[in-house]
Amino acid sequence: MAGGLGCLASATASRGQSNPPLLTFAYGRQFSSAERKALEAWSSVLTRLADGWWRTITTRLASPGFVTVDQITIEFNDIKIKGAPALTHESVIEVDARGLLARLRDPDALAMIAHEMVHVVQRYPHAAGWLVEGIADYMRYYVLIPDDPGRAFRPDGATWHDGYQASAGFLDWVEQGHPGTITRVNATLRAGEDGQALLRETLGQTLQQAWGAYIAGKPYATSAEAWRRRATASRG
């Protein structure tokens, strides 16, 4: 994951000087001078990554007539919801400052913003939660940062509708077999229609049957090696 982020950072082209910056940063509470300096340094790294991520997200998740925002606000605050490192409200990504300050050197803290940036662009009127989170994690783990070790998940007891890593892996498997499916599902959801029905139609079977085929293929995300990489990354 660290290598993937580093490669992206070095390869990301800056936005044209005539364009406003994609990211703006807001501080929802008081911070010490040391905390503010640390957050500003982290924000600088994120800014170098975000432009490339945004171009890819808005291209892969484009749909007819949909116009994306051109600015996103990152707000550092204390999120009251337990276990939530970040939340997205339209074009504002709220980041739990206390949690972030404790792991500024963890590449996962940057990668979680890639996931939240997908939420900025989704704008689904209503959709199954597993698809909302699954598409966001699919973009993070399989498109934006394909060597991210955080994609690993335990297959025992997992399902296609868990959201996050399990759903992301399943959606990548669908996309590999039926290229363009995620773009079509995204457009369907954005139009307020049933993305699950489109998946069933595309696959020609129930989602449970398709999940069984996916797991039977022993995907890398469920392998012992994937779990070793995830554990190593989490130890920093």
Order of secondary-structure elements: HEHEEEHHHHHHHH
Oligomer class: single chain
- Number of self-contained structural domains: 2
- Strand fraction band? 5-15%
Could you describe the 3D structure shown?
The chain has helices at residues 2-11, 33-60, 97-101, 107-122, 129-144, 164-177, 181-190, 195-203, 207-216, 224-234; strands at residues 23-27, 72-77, 86-89, 92-96. It folds into 2 domains: 1-123, Zincin-like, CATH 3.30.2010.30; 131-236, no CATH class. β1, α2 and β2 (72-77) form a beta-alpha-beta unit. The chain has a 4-stranded mixed β-sheet with strand order 1-2-4-3. The chain has 236 residues and is α/β, with parallel strands linked by helices. α2 (33-60) crosses α4 (107-122). It has 10 helices and 4 strands. It is globular, with a radius of gyration of 18 Å.
Would you kindly provide a brief summary of this structure?
The chain is α/β, with parallel strands linked by helices. The chain is built from 10 helices and 4 strands; from the N terminus they run αβαβββαααααααα. It has helices at residues 2-11, 33-60, 97-101, 107-122, 129-144, 164-177, 181-190, 195-203, 207-216, 224-234, and strands at residues 23-27, 72-77, 86-89, 92-96.
